[in-house]
Design a protein that fits this description.
Elements lengths: L1 E7 L8 E5 L11 E6 L2 E10 L15 E2 L11 H10 L4 H8 L12 H12 L15 H16 L3 E7 L5 H14 L3 E5 L7 H10 L3 E3 L6 H12 L5 E4 L11 E7 L16 H12 L2 E6 L4 H8 L4 E5 L10 E5 L10 H12 L3 E5 L8 E4 L16 E3 L5 E3 L6 E2 L13 E4 L3 H11 L5 E4 L18 E4 L12 E6 L2 H5 L6 H14 L9 E5 L6 H7 L3 H15 L6 E9 L2 H10 L11 E13 L2 E10 L2 H15 L5 E7 L6
Parallel strand pairs: 6-11, 6-12, 7-9, 7-10, 8-9, 10-11, 13-23, 14-21, 14-22, 20-21, 22-23
Antiparallel strand pairs: 1-2, 1-4, 3-4, 3-5, 15-19, 16-17, 17-18, 24-26, 24-27, 25-26
Helix pairs in contact: 1-8, 4-5, 5-6
This protein binds adenosine-5'-triphosphate and zinc ion.
Zinc ion binds next to loops.
Catalytic activity: Couples ATP hydrolysis with the unwinding of duplex DNA by translocating in the 3'-5' direction; ATP + H2O = ADP + phosphate + H(+)
InterPro entries: DEAD/DEAH_box_helicase_dom, Helicase_ATP-bd, Helicase_C-like, P-loop_NTPase, PriA, PriA_3primeBD, PriA_3primeBD_sf, PriA_C
GO molecular function, one term: zinc ion binding
Length: 659
């Protein structure tokens, strides 16, 4: 029996464990799933390599229990990037690999033989060849951007290229040509997109240049996802398009990675294992020696900074297609005496709809109203498991919902605190906005696009037919609505005031992206921002689309306050049902506040949502000049808090925000 190394799908401190492989299985290849004993458990894992060191004195090795599949499902081409991710984000390698596999391959079971037979039969069939429509001729901007890409990619094995194209400048058309370039080199392509459900047009455009394209995403049925994975493993697919869950697609001969809308925070997982596939895409391209494209109209400040430092290249599409200008942006105060919209805005909506054009209203809060308040004691309805107010929803039924843990509560008629019987609905969310706007414009059709509407569950944008479109931030993402010429953003000040170092950057990006949906095909586009503080510096930058000034200013602030891109940061979170336990543990521990090697630790402080799903949440913020400093601090936190019963510890390196 030979000795082999296995990465088990378990949070083990050593990344690889050594087992014995019975001779009858000696022919298996690295990347194959095995079942191994781990303590009293049987866990699946990946066979990585043979173990060539001589003896392990005093250690009695156990044989593996089974070989789960007849072929490797996590091929060795993915080992280096998985190992890098595990090192950089301090995550158990086995769990990281598990997070990248289709769900059916994460269980301690073989693929059922009948399923496998069916998939293999499908594989032998011809891949579908959808008709290829003629491609649009390039504009001069597109031509120069593509030529620069081609030169850079042919001169350097690895390069990071920012495709900065204003909204509606035709980035997708450039992606098409880049993909064709890679296919001509007999290479394959990975295209990452923030939300597959919202961007089927991107998939169509890519299929048009490469019919052997498929999309992988977490809403696919398990069987389909497994079948697609095996098709990719068998080299039947040239281009994979998808969100975070597509990152580990087992494409061999990868020659190009495109990260569309690279600024989007959904590239970083928030729950469970925290890692950013946008950042890992850059590393994967570096390991493979191929170009990676970061596409956006509003790149991350970090990306802008790397371009400034000449580490990333920039390709520009400075104009909209058809010489249509970007919409004009203006600021306006909300109406007098609490009226939601001033008369001027109502008139602008009416005129737009009367012309047969469309209006978008963005309000970044779903539900009916964000607060149900007792007029006697001013108590607000609050979740019993989380420290957040309940949001009143009216559709599909009248119910109070916790947006943190999703618990639902019946709407009470009396205040649970003082028995008062006047409960007022305060504030505004998308469902109420829809009701108000409908009352102003009775005959006009309205579509609502938010986390509660069908479009968010992957139905695509074809259902969005209203003349007035109301939505949360979702409405600003990548859509190419033809007739929209007026955009209105409500409660802009609230977006800017979120307690986070990135809130201005996020608001800037959201406003420019929303403006990007306006006037894409018709002239006269206009955007109105509702704000009480029209003289704030950020509005001057937004009104003139002065990204450069915004980035310069924000970058200086980040430098002064020691935030990225000038420092690495991480959040270490402690969770417990007992707040006292957290406070005692952190009070006793010597988690050095400032250490000699440039690591600064702040906290613990109650997290912005200080209790969620029944557990209290405290955070440390760590800053360091290097990733090694961050690692040291996290390792120390694990030693201090990792073994305490009743306390769990999580961390997020380069978190997209501090929530
Ligand atoms: N060369 C071209 N000739 C004519 N029309 C074009 C050309 N390139 C792109 N278009 C059209 O321009 C519109 C905008 O293109 P696209 O959606 O790719 O923009 P974008 O840069 O991705 O914008 P956003 O960042 O807002 O998503 C689309 O309707 C597309 O079909
Ligand atoms: Zn809750």
């Amino acid at each position: 029996m030979k000795k082999i190394q296995v990465i088990p799908f378990a949070p083990v401190p050593q990344e690889r464990l050594t087992y014995l492989l019975p001779d009858e299985h000696s022919g298996i290849l690295p990347g194959t799933r095995l079942l191994v004993p781990l303590g009293y458990r049987r866990v699946p894992g990946i066979y990585v390599s043979d173990f060539s060191d001589a003896d392990l004195p005093g250690i009695k090795l156990k044989p593996i229990l089974d070989v789960l599949d007849p072929f490797p499902v996590f091929p060795p081409i993915l080992f280096s990037i998985a190992e890098f991710a595990s090192w950089y984000y301090r995550l158990p390698l086995g769990l990281l690999i598990k997070s990248g596999l289709p769900p059916s391959l994460t269980k301690p079971l073989p693929i059922p033989p009948r399923t496998l037979q069916k998939i293999q039969k499908d594989l032998s069939g011809k891949t579908s060849q959808s008709p290829i429509q003629p491609l649009l001729p390039f504009t001069t901007d597109q031509e120069s951007a593509f030529q620069l890409f081609k030169n850079l990619s042919e001169q350097n094995p690895f390069s990071v290229q920012l495709l900065e194209g204003v909204t509606g400048s035709g980035k997708t058309r450039v992606y098409q040509e880049m993909i064709l370039w890679a296919l001509q080199q007999k290479k394959r392509v990975l295209v990452l997109t923030p939300e597959i459900g919202l961007t089927p047009p991107l998939l169509d455009s890519i299929r048009n240049v490469s019919p052997n394209t498929l999309s992988i995403h977490s809403k696919q049925p398990n069987g389909e996802r497994l079948r697609d994975w095996i098709r990719i493993l068998n080299h039947k697919i040239d281009v994979v398009v998808g969100p975070r869950s597509a990152f580990f697609a087992p494409l061999s001969d990868l020659g190009l990675i495109i990260v569309d809308e690279e600024h989007d925070p959904s590239y970083q997982s928030r729950e469970g294992l925290s890692y950013s596939v946008r950042s890992l895409a850059i590393k994967r391209a570096q390991i493979l020696g191929c170009p990676v494209i970061l596409g956006s109209a509003t790149p991350l400040l970090e990306t802008w900074y790397q371009v400034k430092k000449k580490r990333y290249h920039k390709l520009s599409l400075p104009n909209r297609i058809g010489q249509l200008p970007l919409p004009s942006i203006s600021v306006m105060a909300p109406g007098p005496r609490g009226a939601l919209l001033p008369t001027e805005v109502i008139t602008a909506i009416k005129n737009t709809v009367d012309r047969g054009e469309k209006v978008i209203l963005l309000l970044n809060r779903r539900g009916f109203v964000p607060a149900l308040v007792c007029l006697e004691c001013r108590e607000m309805a609050t979740c019993s498991h989380c420290s957040v107010h309940l949001v009143l929803h009216k559709k599909p039924k009248r119910v109070l919902i916790c947006h943190c843990c999703q618990s639902q509560y019946a709407v009470h008629s009396r205040c649970p605190s003082c028995g008062g019987n006047v409960l007022a609905e305060e504030g505004l969310a998308t469902q109420k906005l829809e009701e108000i706007i409908q009352s102003f414009f009775p005959g006009v059709s309205i579509s609502r696009i938010d986390g509660d509407s069908p479009v968010s569950s992957g139905e695509g944008t074809s259902s969005i037919t209203g003349d007035i479109l109301i939505g949360t931030q979702m409405i600003a993402k990548g859509h190419d609505f033809r007739e929209v010429t007026l955009g209105i953003i409500l409660e802009t000040d609230r977006m800017l005031a979120l307690p986070d170092y990135r809130s201005e950057e996020r608001a800037f990006e959201l406003i420019i992206q929303l403006a990007g949906r306006v006037g894409r095909h018709l002239p006269g586009g206009r955007v109105i921002l509702m704000t009480q503080n029209p003289n704030d510096q950020i509005f001057k930058e937004i009104l003139s689309y002065d990204t450069e000034h915004f980035f310069e200013r924000t970058n200086n602030e980040r430098l002064e306050l020691s935030y990225p891109p000038h420092r690495k940061i991480a959040l270490v979170s402690l969770w417990s049902r007992s707040e006292t336990l957290i406070l005692e543990a952190t009070g006793k521990a010597r988690f050095e506040k400032t250490s000699s090697n440039g690591v600064v630790i702040q906290g613990p402080a109650a997290a912005p949502v200080s209790k969620a799903k029944g557990e209290f949440h405290y955070q440390f913020l760590i800053r360091a000049t290097s990733i090694e400093g961050i690692h040291q601090a996290i390792d120390r936190a694990v030693v201090l808090f990792g073994g305490i019963k009743g306390l769990t510890i999580h961390w997020s390196i380069d978190p997209p925000d501090l929530f």
